[in-house]
From TrEMBL:
<dbReference type="InterPro" id="IPR020835">
    <property type="entry name" value="Catalase_sf"/>
</dbReference>
<dbReference type="InterPro" id="IPR041399">
    <property type="entry name" value="Catalase_large_C"/>
</dbReference>
<dbReference type="Pfam" id="PF06628">
    <property type="entry name" value="Catalase-rel"/>
</dbReference>
<protein>
    <recommendedName>
        <fullName>Catalase</fullName>
        <ecNumber>1.11.1.6</ecNumber>
    </recommendedName>
</protein>
<keyword id="KW-0479">Metal-binding</keyword>
<dbReference type="InterPro" id="IPR018028">
    <property type="entry name" value="Catalase"/>
</dbReference>
<comment type="function">
    <text>Decomposes hydrogen peroxide into water and oxygen; serves to protect cells from the toxic effects of hydrogen peroxide.</text>
</comment>
<dbReference type="Pfam" id="PF18011">
    <property type="entry name" value="Catalase_C"/>
</dbReference>
<keyword id="KW-0349">Heme</keyword>
<comment type="similarity">
    <text>Belongs to the catalase family. HPII subfamily.</text>
</comment>
<keyword id="KW-0575">Peroxidase</keyword>
<keyword id="KW-0376">Hydrogen peroxide</keyword>
<dbReference type="InterPro" id="IPR043156">
    <property type="entry name" value="Catalase_clade2_helical"/>
</dbReference>
<dbReference type="InterPro" id="IPR024712">
    <property type="entry name" value="Catalase_clade2"/>
</dbReference>
<keyword id="KW-0408">Iron</keyword>
<dbReference type="InterPro" id="IPR002226">
    <property type="entry name" value="Catalase_haem_BS"/>
</dbReference>
<feature type="domain" description="Catalase core">
    <location>
        <begin position="27"/>
        <end position="415"/>
    </location>
</feature>
Length: 668
């Protein structure tokens, strides 16, 4: 091997380019030593980031250009068209025209995605989910670019490249794909403790949603609404799914990733094709400008929520997704979102994560879509006309006529010309800003654990159990014992008992910290299970049948009357009692369904083993199981166990509830 290496000219050439960064001082790409890498250059500790910050621009530009051609983050996604309908005239809070009248409709395009994985990764990994909406308004495109979790890992955008580098596959071996259960991620968390709150959400069931149709969306950052009179409110955006917020369980999520890596995109596509159109309500939380400092958290801190119990959500309208894309690449892959795509009445705050996003998104689209004309791709074009003096560039589609491409001019009577704010021209909110240039963070951003503990205290017992299991799985995958110990010590600040149990599970010492932060505040709105929405609508069940099945047509009618999707499963593809079998027990899996009905007996030993598998998995994942016939098997699951029923009527009720957690031997 040594001789082969020395004779390989290319390998020796590559050797010359290797760099070991261990124990080296930090510098820019030009060799300039860097004195501070935690904070963007701002006007005052809570002021806006300024363009003079060459270090931030170099770091972010390099990061934005690191992947070709897929997105650096949110690479794996799926999307659909729809319409947004306004519930009321919201002109008291914003002059945005698409929110100006009851019943007013605006076309939208929504892209859902995972964050960490590549385009080829699986849908059901533990991860944040992107929830990006493009409103094609009469005043131009407005992009509401958010996630299914309302907070983020870092407070300042200059640290975003560091976070993504840490969560991505490790650079020396490109492992693991689409996972946060590895050393570099948890090393980052333990050494950047502002991430504590986000980690609690990430390890909750929010990070393994049942479907894109059943997860909330959040704008994450703090924006502004401005009305026609110039009155400003700080605002956070919320999407509330009609079907409620539901999740998978971890064992189930891992198995689905193998059985159907396209589980979420298939679910969205098939439901839209079937007419089960996903529906979400758009809500906003509002804080008047004069109330900015009235809370025990900084409203500009992206690692903090505004508890809904303190700042209620006002519902403004609903969105229905009613059409699948015609071409995945042309639409889903080429759509370009940007938090800076706003309309009059929507503006920005000095949230330092948002300020950095305003730079990063355009930069990302330039490298990903090849140049400055990505707005001319069909999926990105606004529905209103657009005119300016920009010309040429990669991918130019507009054929501009006439000699003028500059402002001011006399040849075209100084057109295209600016429009006054009174006539619809965009005007930035006139916020007074003063202060010295400084790389620093406001002292009000320094509390990293109070809301993390509030989240923990707001969880039900089941949610707490799942978070501990998720911690134990993730940290248990970390190979470096010292990192495991750092994580345990860090999260003792959130809850000592949680950290102590984690220490036992991952083989490190109990936490050094013996007292977590002293708060007792809760926010029931952050719990998925405290106030669940129960429904059978659009849930999918497998009914296992054969020639022994009785009353098949009657059962099918009863289920479909409750808007339940039924797939028939048997030992082979065939027609039974006039119904075509959809799958065999080999071509589908119990993890792909919300419940299972056993309606046929099988005598073949191999088939009985397959049937046992369906029963076991359904039981272990807390799903409803109907034993309309007692299977000829060694299966120990018995009617009377929670969610184990013997009639179609009781199965429908069990399915409406969803998960049945009181199963002591279930392993999900």
């Amino acid at each position: 091997m040594e001789e082969f290496y020395m004779s390989n000219k290319k390998l020796r050439q590559l050797e010359a380019y290797k760099v070991d960064d261990n124990n080296k001082p930090l510098s820019t790409n030009q060799g300039l030593l860097v004195s501070e890498d935690e904070h963007s250059l701002k006007i005052g500790s809570r002021g806006p980031t300024i363009m003079e910050d060459f270090h931030f621009r170099e770091k972010m530009t390099h990061f934005d250009h690191e992947r070709i051609p897929e997105r650096v983050v949110h690479a794996r996604g799926t999307a659909a068209h729809g319409v947004f309908e306004c519930y009321e005239d919201a002109s008291d809070i914003t002059k945005a025209n698409f929110l100006s009248a009851k019943g007013k409709q605006t076309p939208v395009f929504v892209r859902f995605s995972t964050v960490a994985g590549s385009r080829g990764s699986a849908d059901t990994v533990r991860d944040v989910r992107g929830f990006a909406t493009k409103f094609y308004t009469e005043e131009g495109n407005y992009d509401l670019v958010g996630n299914n979790i309302p907070v983020f890992f870092v407070q300042d955008a200059i640290k975003f490249p560091d976070f993504v580098h840490a969560v991505k596959p490790e650079p020396h071996n490109e492992i693991p794909q689409a996972q946060s259960a590895h050393d570099t991620f948890w090393d980052f968390i333990a050494n950047n403790q502002e991430s504590a709150h986000m980690v609690m959400w990430h390890l909750s069931d929010r990070a393994i949603p049942r479907s894109y149709r059943m997860m909330e969306g959040f704008g994450v950052n703090t924006y502004r609404f401005v009305n026609a009179a110039g009155k400003s409110h700080f605002v956070k955006f919320h999407w509330k799914p009609k079907l409620g917020v539901h999740s998978l369980v971890w064992d189930e999520a891992q198995k689905i990733a193998g059985k159907d890596p396209d589980f979420h995109r298939r679910d969205l596509y098939e439901n839209i094709e079937q007419g089960n159109f996903p529906e979400y309500e758009l809500g906003v939380q509002l804080i008047a400008e004069e109330d900015e400092f009235k809370f025990d958290f900084d409203i500009l801190d992206p690692t903090k929520i505004w508890p809904e119990e303190e700042v209620p959500v006002r519902i403004l309208g609903k969105m229905i997704l009613n059409k699948n894309v015609d071409n995945f690449f042309a639409e889903t892959e080429q759509v370009a979102f940007h938090v800076g795509h706003v309309v009059p009445g929507i503006d920005f705050s000095n949230d330092p994560l948002l300020q950095g996003r305003l730079f990063s998104y355009t930069d990302t689209q330039l490298i990903r879509l090849g140049g400055p004309n990505f707005h001319e791709l069909p999926i990105n074009r606004p529905v209103c006309p657009f005119h300016n003096n920009q010309r040429d560039g990669y991918g130019r589609q507009t054929i501009n006529v006439g000699p003028v491409s500059y402002h001011k001019n006399s040849i075209q009577q100084n057109t295209p010309s600016p429009v006054s704010p009174n006539d619809g021209g965009y005007e930035h909110y006139q916020e007074k800003v003063e202060g010295v240039k400084i790389r620093a963070r406001s002292k009000s951003f320094e509390d990293h654990f109070s809301q993390a503990r509030m989240f923990w205290l707001s969880m039900t017992d089941i949610e707490k159990e799942h978070i501990l299991k998720a911690f134990s799985f993730e940290v248990g995958k970390v190979t470096r014992v010292d990192i495991r110990q750092q994580v345990v010590d860090m999260f003792a600040n959130v809850d000592v008992d949680l950290a102590t149990q984690l220490a036992m599970n991952v083989g490190v010492q109990p936490p050094k910290i013996k007292q977590h932060v002293q708060i007792n505040k809760t926010s029931p709105a952050v719990s998925m299970y405290a106030n669940p929405i129960f429904s059978t609508e659009t849930k999918k069940v497998a009914m296992i049948i054969n020639e022994t099945t009785e009353d098949l047509a009657q059962i099918m009618n009863a289920l479909k009357a409750q808007k339940i999707t039924v797939e028939l499963v048997s030992d082979k593809q065939q027609t039974i009692l006039g119904f075509t079998v959809d799958h065999t027990m080999d071509t589908t899996s119990p993890v792909l369904y919300d419940g299972v009905i056993i309606a046929g007996k099988f005598n073949n030993p191999k088939t009985k083993n397959k049937l046992n598998h369906f029963i076991d998995e359904t039981y272990n994942h807390y799903k409803p199981l109907a034993l309309l016939v007692q299977p000829n098997s060694t299966q120990q699951v018995q009617p009377g166990d929670e969610g184990i029923v013997q009639t179609v009527e009781s199965f429908i009720e069990a399915l409406r509830i969803g998960r049945h957690w009181n199963r002591a031997t279930a392993i999900g």
